[in-house]
Fold these 4 entries.
Entry 1:
Amino acid sequence: MPTLDVPGAQLYYEVTGSGPVLLLITGAPADATSFVGMVPILSQRYTVVAYDPRGYTRSSLDGEPVEQRVEVHGEDAHHLLAEVTSEPAYVLGTSGGALVGIELAIRHPEQVRVLVAHEPAAIDVLPDGAEWRKFFDDVVDTFRSEGAFPAVRKFVKVVGVDPEEQPEPSEPNPETMAVMEQMKKNLELYFEYQLQQFTHGVPDIDELKRAPTRVVWAGGSGSHGLPCYEAAAKLAELYGEPLIEFPGDHQGVMTHPDDFAKAIEAAIAGK
């Protein structure tokens, strides 16, 4: 699979199908495998481009990790789109990836025909954003004192999972151990260098409204009351458009890939 050199990093990306380009941007600490269930459906109509964010899984950083910024990741998406097409593209961003998509549409509006922003993690836009900020700070403190996986057990509250109901992990086989080791590396980058940085601040909705890009705001039908759903609803209100409900919860791209892919196609078509 191809890679692309960008300032400070090398991006791993995958291109599947034919037709207009549809760029899929995941939220960290996930990677392009988040979309594996949707790609066979979407690639029947689109040239689907998915990639691992800088520093995650198959995308490398030049040198030691540094604080990850939405603006830099937005430029990564800009360079990747410039590599694969000269035409405006369709873009789906989910969670932190939705923040990257918003940044891309603001800085390079000529590259984005339609942006589907699924549950952007814009915590500071919420009335209780300060409480969630304290929660994230506690997660990072847990990571620093206890390690990546104990921090995850706390962090899953954001997507509606009760940490107390999570089973204790069983003894892994060698294949599982390899996956867990990569996951651990991703989580270390995420908790130490990205979680607090990405979720600080509110996207510039006024600037986004000035762009020619059509923006579709989406939240999972199973995410009501959770922070990223509520953030999507608030941003949609500020933008002046209704929130569209997509199948599943914050992780609907993985749990409901067929229906989620159909929802993307309908959103792009304006249905």
Note: Residues 129-196 form one domain.
Entry 2:
Amino acid sequence: MKNKFFSLVLVLIFSICAFSNLYSHTGHYKNLKMIEMDIYRNGKIIGYSKFFFRSYENLFEVINETHFEVKVAGIKLFSVKSISKEKYQNDQLIEFKSETMQNDKKKFVNLVYNRSKDVFIIDGSSFKGNADKENIVGNWWNHKILTSNSQISPLSGSIKKQEVLFISKETLNIDNKSFEVDHFKLKSTDENLEEDKKLNFDIWLDRKKNIIVKVEYNRLGKWQYILKNFE
């Protein structure tokens, strides 16, 4: 039960579709310094996920720090502490590295873009091999997750196929601030996956700023990533 519960939460943390070409890529974030999201479980803050952006010449980097801890009846059930770096050149992901401590277990991803073969080469704790360069790393800073047919787990390097459906245009209120958003549903398309490994998220995107302001997931509790601040 504990292992399944943990797997469900890991899907929520990072995962993250063919939709439309309304949204471009890293250029939308070059004027940002930071995006910070609070992580909630059943309405209680249990941690955070912070993204830091750096641009220089034709390179763009994103550093992510994620940390949360879940306690049940005062006893720590599990914790996650992760740091990662994405590097893009002219909108193409060329490198991704991550290290994650899941309780006492280490997970990792080392990804590089091989220009001669035009593919990603992945060395991860759950997957080792080549992958199509159109895959996106499943982090919540990047609205391109809404235009991709598959995503790479930033924890382990595994690849999951996905689809994204537009739900509606809405107005979302967060900390007395109003956001005009597009509401999407992101789901796995591989029916052979175990239920606790399938993607199943509601995502709200600020259509003017191109920032994901909320992510929600319901299974063994209500999980949310909610925008706290951006600069």
Note: Helices lie at 2-14.
Entry 3:
Amino acid sequence: MADADLDAVIRQLAKQQNKTILAAAKKRKDRFNGLAMKAKDKDAKERFKMLAREAVEQANAAARRLLISADNVADSYARAMRQAAAAELPKTAEKKADKPADAAAAKPSTGKAGSKAAKKAPAKAAAKKAVKAKA
């Protein structure tokens, strides 16, 4: 669990809370239906039945909002982690690219074309790595 993705943990906790909310709503509905059965007049029976329906309806709405919020948070976290990883990758690629360029500059070149090719090669490799990281 220590190396688990936090977005998966967020979704899992939301599912557990969702089950808890729906179980509590079921208990409350059963309680109101029991009170409706015991009620002596028609108005009280109808009021308790209405309360039972409302309790279930409100709990379903709360559970739905909870799941939607948790999905949004988990998606935002996953997106932020991907963007942070992508932002760090080009920096390390640039550091690696600088070393071969310095080594190529230290060697005597035979002309203008040779020095341009030596400078472009590390930049192309860094660009390819950045494209692969985004995919």
Note: The chain has a mean pLDDT of 79.
Entry 4:
Amino acid sequence: MSEHEKPEIPDILTKRTSRQLAPEELEERILKFLASRRLCVLSTCRDNVPRSTPILFRSKGFNLYMAGEPGLKLGNIKLNQRVSVGIFDPKAEFSEDWHDITGLQISGHATLIGKQDLGFLEAFRLFGRPQSWSEHWFGMIIEVIPDTIELLSMAFKLEDYAARQIWKRPGL
């Protein structure tokens, strides 16, 4: 390519569409994406100081569960239950294909579940560890209940849908 030729802009960057998925289809795609991932970034905040923590998670429906060791994130959640979670498809990291860019941005609130709390063992079992391990663990389960989930997939444009699709918890 000569220095006077402009590189061709990929169609994926110029294609505009605002068409939304049917609610049932969006929910199905979100749940499928959550079930296929295990690592997220949990963002908390205290005194206007944000903190983002890579952490393993499991999902049950739209709710996420994380095994939180004592640290700043648990202290932050005790003071401010509003959290954000980011999850991406790692194949996009080294791909040159724009269609591979896929991820979720979740805004919601977190609750902490200790060993003495109802629902602890059920949440602990999601991680597939022997129940006996829970007796010696000193952390807490973080449950994230989403208010809004934004699913971004550049591949949606191939189906003539907007790349950004938004789910809101019923009743909000």
Note: The two ends are 53 Å apart (CA to CA).
